[in-house]
């Protein structure tokens, strides 16, 4: 009979996410916190069991049976059931408070997926003091600052989700009119405020974000407003340093209008486009936040209205980022389908253009008799006035 050697020094690991742990109690705590086979863990002993039956035997032997509850005549006996992770609601949507994996694993994957400086520059992010040909853009770049470096005296957030809404001001520029920042891991709302630009607004873009002049006026009268991009930036810098990962959907303009230069960026638009087209090739298409929520999460945002809301978009971008981090295999499957669909639509557009050119070519007028279409001298000059011979060259 062959004896199987058991490696007693083998570190315990989670069967769901394969995260290793030094002790079994750490594994059990992780399973309870992340709900990874949490129904196989004893909450009293912080211990993981190989099956729910083993846990039941343990509870009966170690902790005894729960006392019987005798209901009164007006009391209904209910059996408690495991509750799902706590969620919070915004515009009839559910957003997760607890990550799907261990926070440490999510943070490591988040940092690894932050984009390179080369990719960020290609996508229009301002990194450092860069010279711009456009004088107006150069002026914005000159006002751009970086977040502070990490300090134990001033701890900041490890990751935040950000979104801003814009309005048009003089000289064709855009300025921040609304800002929202939330903690990526806890969902805590750090900033959620309207912003009144210091320059006159000439294009409110109410059809995009729903903010009207009266909206700012009411907020200002109640003291619930930030004045100018500098005030908005100051609030943001209270929560971030250079090591903070900033998560969002197409944050180029948000950070540019805040005059903030940041290199640890997790852009859901870039990440999903790279999943479809690869990291070294130009993007043929970028998917909107609304389409990503529908395709990946089966989540409908902006219900009943097409207007954007900074808080809703920040929370939705967080959801998309969490999904991409926790389900890399599903992201690959979606990317494969999305690329196939994109190439099919691209082929259809090319075919329509060819058909249009072909129709234009064949629909050109065909002349049966050139004399009917070409203007000749005899059509405008009488025969008697027509020269009988060319003038002499002498």
UniProtKB/TrEMBL annotation:
Keywords: Exonuclease, Hydrolase, Nuclease. The keyword Nuclease applies. GO terms for cellular component: nucleus. CDD domains: DEDDh_RNase. Pfam families: RNase_T. One of its GO terms (molecular function) is exonuclease activity. One of its GO terms (biological process) is ribosomal large subunit assembly. It comes from the Eukaryota. The keyword Glycoprotein does not apply. Residues 41-63 form the C2H2-type domain. PANTHER family: EXONUCLEASE, PUTATIVE (AFU_ORTHOLOGUE AFUA_7G00870)-RELATED (PTHR12801:SF114), RNA EXONUCLEASE REXO1 / RECO3 FAMILY MEMBER-RELATED (PTHR12801). This is C2H2-type domain-containing protein. It comes from Fusarium odoratissimum (strain NRRL 54006). The lineage of its organism: Eukaryota, Fungi, Dikarya, Ascomycota, Pezizomycotina.
């Amino acid at each position: 009979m062959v004896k199987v050697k058991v490696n007693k020094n083998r570190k315990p690991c989670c069967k769901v996410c394969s995260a290793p742990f030094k002790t079994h109690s750490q594994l059990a705590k992780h399973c309870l916190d992340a709900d990874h086979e949490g129904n196989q863990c004893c909450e009293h002993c912080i211990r993981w069991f190989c099956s729910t039956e083993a846990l039941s035997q343990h509870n009966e032997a170690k902790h005894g049976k729960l006392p019987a509850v005798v209901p009164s005549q007006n009391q209904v006996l209910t059996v408690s059931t495991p509750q799902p992770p706590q969620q919070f609601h915004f515009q009839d949507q559910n957003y997760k408070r607890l990550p799907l994996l261990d926070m440490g694993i999510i943070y490591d994957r988040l940092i690894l997926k932050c984009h390179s400086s080369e990719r960020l520059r290609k996508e229009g992010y301002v990194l450092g003091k860069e010279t711009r040909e456009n004088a107006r853009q150069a002026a914005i770049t000159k006002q751009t600052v970086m977040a502070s470096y990490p300090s134990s005296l001033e701890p900041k957030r490890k990751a935040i989700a950000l979104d801003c809404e814009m309005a048009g001001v003089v000289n064709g520029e855009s300025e921040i009119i609304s800002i929202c920042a939330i903690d990526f891991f806890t969902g805590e709302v750090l900033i959620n405020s309207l912003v009144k630009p210091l320059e006159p607004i000439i294009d409110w873009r109410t059809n995009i974000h729903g903010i009207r002049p009266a909206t700012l006026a009411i907020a200002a009268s109640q003291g619930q407003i930030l004045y100018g991009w500098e005030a908005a930036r100051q609030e943001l810098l209270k929560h971030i340093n250079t090591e903070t990962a900033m998560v969002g959907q197409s944050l180029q303009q948000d950070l540019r209008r805040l005059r903030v230069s940041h290199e640890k960026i997790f852009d859901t638009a870039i990440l999903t486009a790279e999943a479809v087209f690869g990291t070294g090739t130009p993007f043929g298409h970028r998917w909107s936040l609304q389409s990503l929520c529908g395709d990946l999460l089966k989540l409908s945002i902006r219900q009943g209205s097409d207007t954007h809301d900074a808080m809703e978009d920040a929370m939705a971008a967080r959801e998309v980022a969490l999904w991409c981090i926790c389900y890399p295999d599903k992201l690959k499957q979606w990317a494969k389908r999305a690329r196939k669909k994109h190439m099919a639509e691209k082929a259809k557009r090319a075919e329509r253009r060819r058909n249009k050119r072909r129709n234009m070519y064949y629909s050109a007028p065909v002349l049966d008799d050139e004399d009917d279409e070409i203007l000749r001298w005899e059509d405008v000059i009488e025969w008697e006035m027509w020269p009988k011979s060319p003038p002499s060259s002498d």
